[in-house]
Specification:
Largest sheet: 8 strands, mixed
Oligomer: single chain
Number of domains: 2
Strand content: 15-25%
Length: 482
């Protein structure tokens, strides 16, 4: 047996070293779990990277060590495992049947999958996106990581040319190791907004929407540090920790191209609307998709859909009381109702207490038109200041207070909170649709500007120094009667 074969066998299910490592992970999570104060989930990453196409899933268990230690995580290396997500779904099914526990999975870095993350016809193994596939994906993946260090994955300007804010932290050079460059036809299978639209199309075909997910964010850092803010960004890994070289040198490089160091993103967080700070309550919130993502700031965001919200509902400081009473929260289905009228949405956004003011709140709508074609539109629904949309419906920029010489800004523009009741002015009761909220901050410095000043660096001309951080709610879906 060769050395690589020995290493593979020792790190495979059934090996003592594999079981011991899993036991230590489980016990570490249990040791640090403090219900009501700090929740530590037992879980693992299922690291599928066929052809360098990033199809990673994170697996989260609702349970403690009694159930978790009855199994070991699956691997993707033959002959012990496979990179096909169907293999992961089978493991999840077996876990629940064997232990009586509960589990879920969610993907990240769809923007490095070269179009394989959200297929519509063929999977990367050549199999069809059939009824079994859509049912399993809908069952096991109720959540999606839409933003993290290796790029933001909400939207792309090629897919959403009318969206002036779609060009945000896009990683579109190639796959994870840049062994294959990106082409435009791959992009639709990588970004969350396009996936949500594809989900409507597949639901029309199969009766099940496999891409009905809640939104979340994370760092994906390998430093064990919680550093998602621009001014304390510590990097993806040792090679990207603060130094005079991390901005200037490529993070990943091949003979085909590179992900430049200055394009790494100090992102992000998942916010969860849960009844308690416990494994069970947070897991259940993930399952019902009552989550939202931010690119780093601790923005507060509420989003409810219904049929009867009115302007007077904004008079209360308890937006959630009204929202749950008269409608459904983010992540839910809005049921059709008899009679005329369009859906109404109650939205509340609050700035990070020590962060930047808010520029605007937008509702992103996607739908299937009468011809079965996928459509989208971005609506500005609340904004700061006395701005007004122009003749083309575009809202002027909020302004920019960033001082490039000091890496600072002032909250003399923007608003500390934005609340509104919005009614869809183009509602078609016969069309499948989804709605989600995007909240934009005023411009602030990127971590690159902090590095430039602290380390006295000369930066490449294309390095971005200022950006507008944001939050993304989970969608609310509308399905016509019948």
């Amino acid at each position: 047996m060769t050395l690589p074969e020995v290493l593979l066998e020792s790190h495979s299910p059934g090996a003592d070293a594999f079981a011991f490592t899993w036991e230590q992970i489980v016990l570490a999570a249990e040791r640090h779990n403090d219900p009501g104060n700090f929740t530590a989930f037992i879980g693992f990453e299922w690291t599928s990277v066929p052809k360098g196409f990033n199809l990673h899933r994170n697996v989260m268990l609702r349970d403690g060590p009694i159930r978790a230690l009855q199994v070991v995580p699956p691997v993707t290396q033959p002959p012990y495992g496979d990179t096909d997500p169907k293999m992961l779904y089978a493991w999840l099914e077996d876990y629940q049947a064997r232990t009586g526990g509960r589990a879920l999975a969610f993907a990240h870095n769809g923007n490095l999958s070269n179009g394989w993350m959200f297929p519509t016809e063929d999977t990367y193994h050549g199999g069809k996106v059939d009824e079994e596939y859509v049912k399993n994906r809908a069952k096991w993946e109720p959540h999606y990581e839409v933003t993290q260090i290796k790029g933001d994955g909400e939207a792309h300007p090629y897919l959403s040319p009318e969206d002036e804010f779609a060009d945000y932290e896009n990683w579109d050079v190639g796959n994870l190791d840049i062994s294959q460059l990106k082409t435009d036809d791959m992009l639709a299978g990588e970004y969350a907004r396009e996936a949500l639209k594809r989900g409507l199309m597949l639901e029309e075909k199969f009766g099940v929407n496999p891409y009905k997910f809640g939104m979340g964010g994370a760092t994906d850092s390998h430093t064990s540090l919680t550093t998602a803010e621009e001014e304390n960004y510590f990097g993806k890994s040792v090679s990207a920790e603060p130094s005079p070289t991390r901005v200037l040198h490529p993070f990943v490089e091949s003979e085909l191209g590179a992900f430049e160091g200055h394009t790494l993103v100090a992102s992000g967080y998942t916010a969860v609307w849960a009844s308690d700070n416990t494994r069970s309550a947070i897991f259940d919130a993930f399952k019902r998709r009552e989550t939202y993502a931010t690119t780093g700031p601790r923005i507060g965001l509420r989003f409810f859909g219904g049929w009867d919200f009115v302007e007077d509902d904004l008079l209360t400081r308890l937006v959630a009381d009204v929202g749950y009473t008269k409608g459904v929260p983010m992540g839910s289905d809005l049921r059709p109702r008899e009679g005329e009228g369009a859906p109404t949405f109650l939205i509340g956004a609050l700035r990070d207490p020590i962060g930047a003011n808010l520029d605007r709140v937008q509702v992103v709508k996607g739908w299937l038109d009468a011809d079965g074609e996928m459509q989208e539109k971005v609506f500005d629904v609340a904004w700061s200041g006395d701005r007004a949309p122009d003749a083309n419906g575009k809202l002027p920029p909020v302004g920019n207070t960033v001082d490039l010489d000091t890496a600072s800004w002032t909250n003399t523009i923007g608003a500390s909170e934005l609340v509104t009741v919005w009614t869809d002015p183009e509602f078609d009761p016969a069309a499948r649709a989804f709605y989600y909220v995007r909240v934009l901050e005023i411009p602030t410095p990127r971590w690159v500007l902090y590095d430039k000043l602290r380390l006295d660096l000369e930066l490449p001309e294309e390095a971005q120094l200022v950006h507008q951080e944001r939050a993304y709610s989970s969608p609310i879906w509308y399905t016509p009667e019948g």
